[in-house]
């Protein structure tokens, strides 16, 4: 958060220096000095973020920078408000009359910047004492935008064209459950710990050509830990009815109780061979609250569930337990993720040794491997960068005790400042919630992370 605060302060100061130069006569040099000094401090935050894991003093130092940057932004915005409002609300004579007031505010701004200068000097002394070095990163939000746009094209959370290590699992699910000649409604379950790729496997099966050809209708819904049976059934219904009927069906379901909504789904599926995926079921109660909505006819329909618990449901006809990746499959997945941007780059023997040491920390967990590989996508493919990642991973592992938590924490620390703040805003929403883009963008605007101008330029309206 300190990086984000400093970035916003630098951008605010830069905008002031460019757009309000007429207001700054006498303190323009101080404003530019403060902007450049904050920008210089940005370049030390990357090293500080890595060292704070094991040093409370450095965590306090980062907090001091964050508070100073926020104070600097407040000082500038307060000055703009005080000198601009009278100019807009008064005529020519009024503006001339308020000139002494403007001089007063300029003088006060200069004094406040001097106070901030004293605090910065103390922070600089502490930086030298703690051995915090310049690792780069002194970039503003404006210079990050092209980088962020490029990263969006490389999102690892989109469906992979080349899935590693799941080919046999897909075949087993198809042949032993989904394409079996069972005439009744049958349930299959994919079980395994979080991050193993249960949803990825279910998605591969869901989109498999044989499944698409065999079933008349398909639908997918995420159940999650805090489930709402009525909302889950509504989500299924909207996928099963024709688009022109969705609004009418939605209005009816909004006014109906759970029993009637379940009856609507039952009638919609009746007489059809359907394939439904209930993803991420945590509790037996979730299954019990939904099961009666699915017709038990001899139409060879299938339900596919994913869960961390083997007990959900207990009466599944086929249970597929997903396993951790072996070292070779782990390495193959890692290379795909780490070199997605640089497919022509060769992995040297020394880099492979470091990479395999990194993978040992991942314990064959696909989520951990994917995140670690993603951390290396934008880096120079060199031994030093891979060693830096391994060092950071070891440091975070010592703090969290969990390889997954350590890797996710490291990936968060690697985010650009603005994206850290944007990411944290997702904490306002429930787990597995469907988030409207317009709602999230408006939240970012309210938090000062995005401007209305950027919203219009990007065309975020939905």
How would you describe this structure to a colleague?
The chain has 462 residues and is α/β, with parallel strands linked by helices. The protein folds into three domains: 138 residues, no CATH class; 155 residues, P-loop containing nucleotide triphosphate hydrolases (Rossmann fold, 3-Layer(aba) Sandwich); 102 residues. It has 21 helices and five strands. A five-stranded parallel beta sheet has the order 2-3-4-1-5, with helices on both faces. It is globular and about 85 Å long. The two termini are 28 Å apart. About 8% of the residues have low confidence. It comes from Sesamum radiatum. Keywords: ATP-binding, Leucine-rich repeat, Nucleotide-binding, Plant defense, Repeat. One of its GO terms (molecular function) is ADP binding. This is Disease resistance RPP13-like protein 3. Belongs to the disease resistance NB-LRR family.
SSE pattern, N- to C-terminal? HHHHHHHEHHEHHHEHEEHHHHHHHH
First-last Cα distance: 28 Å
Structural class: alpha/beta
Beta-strand percentage range: 5-15%
Q: Which fold name fills CATH's third level, the topology of the largest domain? A: Rossmann fold
User: Which CATH architecture of the largest domain?
Assistant: 3-Layer(aba) Sandwich
Rg: 28 Å
| Number of separate strands | 5
Assembly status: single chain
The CATH superfamily of the largest domain bears the name P-loop containing nucleotide triphosphate hydrolases
Q: Could you give the order of strands across the largest sheet?
A: 2-3-4-1-5
Largest sheet: 5 strands, parallel
Question: How many helical stretches?
Answer: 21
Q: What sort of overall outline do the alpha carbons produce when their principal axes are compared?
A: globular
The percent range for helix content is 55-70%
State the CATH class of the largest domain: Alpha Beta
Global mean pLDDT: 79
Could you say how many structural domains there are in total? 3
Question: Which blocks of ≥5 consecutive residues have pLDDT under 50?
Answer: 86-99, 137-158
